[in-house]
Design a protein that fits this description.
Blueprint (H helix, E strand, L loop, with lengths): L1 E5 L8 E6 L2 E7 L10 E6 L2 E9 L2 E8 L6 E7 L2 E7 L1
Antiparallel strand pairs: 1-8, 2-3, 3-6, 4-5, 5-6, 7-8
């Protein structure tokens, strides 16, 4: 499964972390202070349940909520205006 994030900001400057309870993949974009997108996008296709966005003092987060199964392997391909996250079961 591929998740694509596109924009006009610098998407190749990011940090990724994992959370186990609940299972999540969290992408932080510290240089992005504002965005225009739905806050929650429901996907419901294993391993991805939904995508959420949040903005805070440290920038913008894209949160991939995963189904509570084995944490998927993932690869990231980042360019200045686009990021692709490949989730593998």
């Amino acid at each position: 499964m591929k998740v694509t994030i596109q924009g006009t900001a610098k998407l190749d400057r990011y940090e990724i972390s994992r959370a186990m309870n609940p299972r999540r993949l969290i992408v932080d974009f510290p240089e992005i202070r504002s965005f225009s997108v739905d806050n929650v996008i429901t996907v419901s296709k294993n391993p991805l349940f939904r995508v959420k966005t949040d903005k805070g003092a440290r920038g913008t987060q894209v949160i991939l909520d995963l189904y509570p199964v084995v944490f998927p392997r993932y690869d990231v391909k980042a360019q200045p205006d686009k990021m692709e996250i490949f989730l593998r079961r």
